[in-house]
Amino acid sequence: DVVLTQTPPTLSATIGQSVSISCRSSQSLLHSNGNTYLNWLLQRPGQPPQLLIYLVSRLESGVPNRFSGSGSGTDFTLKISGVEAEDLGVYYCVQSTHAPYTFGAGTKLELK
Amino acid sequence: VQLVESGGGLVQPGKSLKLSCSASGFTFSSYGMHWIRQAPGKGLDWVAYISSSSGTVYADAVKGRFTISRDNAKNTLYLQLNSLKSEDTAIYYCARRGVPREFAYWGQGTLVTVSS
Q1: Considering only alpha carbons, which residue of chain B is nearest residue A46?
Q2: Is 90 exceeded by the pLDDT of residue B99?
Q3: What is the dihedral of CA A49, B8, B10, B66, to 10 degrees?
Q4: Which residue of A15, B23, B35, B115 is most buried, as measured by CB atoms within 10 A?
């Protein structure tokens, strides 16, 4: 199974600070069809997760453009350019290139 | 798109439970569906997937114990949980497949507690 390793496990930030989260895969997430099925989700306390980024870098409708995704192959990054209070929660990367699908362990973003 | 899970509750180890996910707002029969779970205070754990043509995939941790199924006439997804263990205690979410917007739609979840 594909293992996704997220770092750091916890991130402390001030409002307005830019932060990055890394997601490294144990094998390439490039599908034979040329797409890379790596998504980023945010789970706020007491809520189901919400999709932020799909196909590595595509912004989900309604998600602020301070969120951006990048990467290829096995190394991926989520960047938040100017953290806002509503961004606090746990961020997960998830891959759907290889079955069984797998999630990273999560990165908790909290206020410093 | 709306997904509403039900059927969770307190169950003894070794017993069974059947979860349901009622779907609306889209053509249910055209989409694959997932079950994902989250143990208390833990991360997300993918459980099972069923395609629009009812092909299935399971996580190793539940293979042989859980069964995912669907009833397109009722717009409902199911997860049959057998031989339950304490480590199966979790909130169980259903989510709609989307290509490429995988995991764009989630239900609110239903809590399963396995305890004697």
Answers
A1: B108
A2: no
A3: -90
A4: B35
Give the span between the Cα atoms of A58 and A85, in whole angstroms.
23
In chain A, residues with a C-beta closer than 8 Å to the C-beta of B44 are 41, 43, 49, 92, 94, 103, 106
Q: pLDDT averaged over chain A?
A: 97
Give chain B's length. 116
Instruction: Report angle CA B103, B109, B111 to the nearest 5 degrees.
Output: 140
Q: How far apart are CA A38 and CA A30, in angstroms?
A: 9
Q: Which residues of A touch B21 (CB under 8 A)?
A: none
pLDDT digits (tens, 9 = 90+) for B66-98: 999 999 999 999 999 999 999 999 999 999 998
CA A19, CA A107: separation in Å to the nearest integer?
A: 12
Query: Which residues in chain B are contacts of A94 at CB distance < 8 A?
Result: 44, 46, 102-103
